[in-house]
Task: inverse folding
């Protein structure tokens, strides 16, 4: 696509990058069929190709309005279009650049600004988020059913094995996950411990930065990245850290891109690249651990514990960040099958569930429609349980169904250790 960008913008690294991405798009429209917002709204301007045209126009110095902002806001950044595009257009990167430009040129109404500020300020801060969740749990029985589903009851995380092995991996604690579902990382630690690897959590590492990044606050995102690098680096430098494990696929996508986001920061660029290179989704880490441990694949059979203790008919929801962001496809499903699960069919598995970070707060109507469609697809095969790989998707799906929803790592841990499945 020919794109004569505004010369001042073209002189910046973002301008060069945007031009390269725009040139790759050949307007074929293959991406329209897999775009969730185009499927719902049927408007070309709510499709990848339409948004690319909007961004091309604004980056060329053309007019930009609240309507442009609305079409970009409605994008889930699910990146399904990237998976479909035959020309390798990096839509996710382009929309970051486009949103930053729109943010600078179009002022949001005060209420919208306040809403975004609250999301950016509260969610990444466990010290603020935890008391709010605690208060929510205290009044949970009094809440209407729809709200009650958004406040998960407290569940004990179970034990975290002491660091007894020579092999070691670090794990990202994250921001909301330790409050909402502390059992996920503990389950990952128990699984890796069985395979001869100690999982170590570093208290000073927190939010990965994705929240601020997707709200177009690049500097706040980079601050979170630098803080995590500072927390991990002394341990990485000591040597012996095989990987940085992330159990939320949305956060994993972000940490894998630290090297890119901090490429212009001379104090952090080298370390950021090394941190990204070390980062693994928990599915990749477990696969590697299984390949390299003495127990081998037998470790997943868990000494004969069977479906009497855990549900076996499961529907797996692969988050967009896992399949489109990190391009990890079939790995979790393979591990679940090995552990004895029966995977029920999930039509249109490439489509977003509508969680998409803060999207469910900022675009509630579209988000609810996507949630309903996704739950109908997941329940089509009448599973006992829905499994997923990202805390945001987990909470969003659980709020819309009576079927139990769990992180797949917790299911696998219960399966191999014989613990009762938590409902
Ligand atoms: S599929 Fe790729 S090349 Fe075709 S219109 Fe979409 S982004 Fe452009
Ligand atoms: S990222 Fe998702 S919602 Fe946005 S244009 Fe691409 S497919 Fe559509």
Result:
């Amino acid at each position: 696509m020919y794109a004569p960008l505004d010369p001042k913008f073209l002189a910046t690294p973002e301008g060069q990058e945007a031009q390269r991405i725009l040139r790759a798009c050949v307007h074929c429209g293959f991406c329209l069929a897999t775009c969730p917002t185009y499927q719902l709204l049927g408007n070309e301007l709510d499709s990848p190709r339409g948004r690319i045209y909007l961004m091309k126009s604004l980056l060329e110095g053309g007019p930009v309005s609240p309507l442009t902002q609305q079409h970009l806001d409605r994008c889930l950044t699910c990146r399904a279009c990237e998976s479909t595009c035959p020309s390798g257009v990096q839509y996710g990167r382009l929309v970051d650049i486009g949103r930053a430009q729109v943010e600078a040129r179009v002022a949001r109404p005060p209420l919208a600004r306040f809403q975004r500020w609250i999301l950016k300020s509260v969610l990444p801060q466990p010290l603020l988020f935890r008391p709010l969740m605690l208060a929510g749990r205290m009044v949970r029985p009094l809440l209407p059913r729809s709200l009650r589903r958004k406040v998960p009851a407290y569940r004990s995380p179970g034990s975290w094995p002491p660091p007894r092995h020579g092999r070691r991996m670090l794990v990202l604690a994250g921001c909301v996950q330790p409050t909402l579902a502390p059992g996920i990382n503990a389950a990952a630690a128990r699984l890796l411990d069985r395979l001869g690897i100690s999982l170590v959590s570093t208290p000073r590492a927190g939010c990965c930065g994705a929240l601020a990044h997707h709200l177009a606050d690049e500097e706040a995102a980079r601050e979170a990245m630098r803080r995590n690098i500072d927390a991990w680096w002394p341990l990485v430098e000591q040597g012996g850290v095989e990987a940085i494990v992330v159990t939320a696929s949305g956060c994993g996508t972000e940490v894998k891109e630290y090297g890119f986001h901090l490429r212009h920061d001379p104090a952090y660029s080298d370390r950021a690249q090394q941190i990204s290179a070390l980062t693994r989704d928990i599915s990749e880490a477990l696969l590697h651990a299984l390949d390299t441990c003495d127990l081998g694949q037998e470790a997943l059979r868990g000494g004969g514990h069977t479906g009497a203790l855990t549900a076996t008919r499961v529907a797996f929801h692969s988050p967009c960040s896992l399949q489109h962001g990190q391009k990890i496809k079939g790995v979790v499903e393979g591990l679940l099958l090995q552990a004895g699960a029966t995977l029920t069919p999930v039509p249109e598995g490439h489509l977003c569930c509508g969680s998409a970070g803060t999207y469910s707060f900022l675009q509630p109507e579209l988000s609810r429609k996507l949630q309903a469609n996704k739950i109908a697809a997941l329940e089509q095969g009448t599973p006992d349980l829905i499994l997923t790989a990202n805390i945001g998707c987990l909470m969003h799906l659980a709020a819309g169904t009576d079927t139990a929803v769990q992180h797949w790592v917790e299911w696998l841990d219960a399966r191999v250790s014989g613990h009762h499945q938590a409902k």
